[in-house]
């Protein structure tokens, strides 16, 4: 008759842990110090600096924080808005709405502003991820505080996490994963399935509202791990014994999470402005096989010149473990396997299959090696067309490999401390850990000074030129590459100045090829003209037909005021403000100078 399982018995044999408060304090301080170190460029001036490689996503998350808090405090729908993409609005349930963060941190957003709140959350995300994994390891999986610290800190500040710290508040919320793991395995406890199912259902609802794609990946990973672990001969008896309780708990989880997420899920799959799949090319956004052995940009090795350009962009270095760490992880696996009993081997077998499966899936539809595409089809080519899967970027599946490596490191250190090897072997293991991990120590994110919010907005002067809830547009129109409009709107909402709407915006919506999504709305003539002038510095040829098209666009959007600042923030390239002013003058006539902006009033019929 199997004994009652603990949380620990799934990934390893049950361990009795004595809480070490000193170790807890040290790890907490190290995690906070590393988090502040990584984000230190922003801490120099939270309201005046932006992440160099991803200022557009930073502006989006700042806007989401401001809008979410405003929506809840004003009784508006936090998952659908008409403040951007006038007149169609935006379905935020199919975007990364981070609603829980927006609500919880709303008082802070109102107090210190969206940029500073964004920085606080980003810093806490990094520290909390490391600490959550340390807690899971130290309380349930390993005896050694050092083992738990190395595993937790590695996962929390892994290359993938530091890469996504370039403005992704959703993906850096990695603290959710160990909590989900903990609560899933807690479902095995007999007689507590109702309570445990409710708790897991609440956690799933929170995770969905912060990082839906990460929740999906976690569910896939846990499903595969549990299936492989339970089917192993060493665990079949226990699996059969706990299956009824586990299934009851999952049913309760589904009911609780389904009830809480009924409206967001309806919006996601059947609501207005939804889409199926994304406009991102899965071949481009897949992991290069060579990337697993490469080093990331923001690391000691990267600073030493060993970085590569194998990622689609600097925010997607999802593996990049370096060859020494891959060798060390393999060595840890062999060490643990040789010393393991059958149940521990079952766990190692499940972890190995999990890592290999997600690594292969991360290669996308077609394998790439050192930047060169091959003709070798990959398993993702079969799965990538399935619903939900078609909205995921295959490269991010590599993020699942990181916790597996972290667990192997922690288990190995725990074993080595319990059964110390001979002196020469101990020195070799120590050197191996140093050589593998020190080059991956993170370096601060690159930041740049960004253009300030114009006085026209900060002084509230805009209210004299826009009716309550009316439409104002920056020039060029707000997009991922021109985030000014949403930054202005975030400032106005967070400082309780009132609401103004904008056409366009940075969001995912319908209109992409083959019914897939795209960034921003389908372009219209007015936006295209301004974009051309901003990019090239060459005002377009304007005819009477051009003016009629522009007039139709402005009427469609109900624009009352067009605003051009002296310095426009271009997230990807420099903007030619003089070309923009000349273009707008040809289209709309001479502007007014109000505060520190050029302004064109638009008369609506």
Automatic annotation (TrEMBL):
A Pfam family of this chain: DUF6311
Assigned keywords, A-Z: Membrane, Transmembrane, Transmembrane helix
UniProt name for this protein: DUF2079 domain-containing protein
Chain segments annotated as transmembrane: 25-43, 92-112, 118-137, 144-162, 168-186, 193-210, 216-234, 246-266, 319-336, 348-367, 387-412, 424-442
Domain DUF6311, residue spans: 78-423
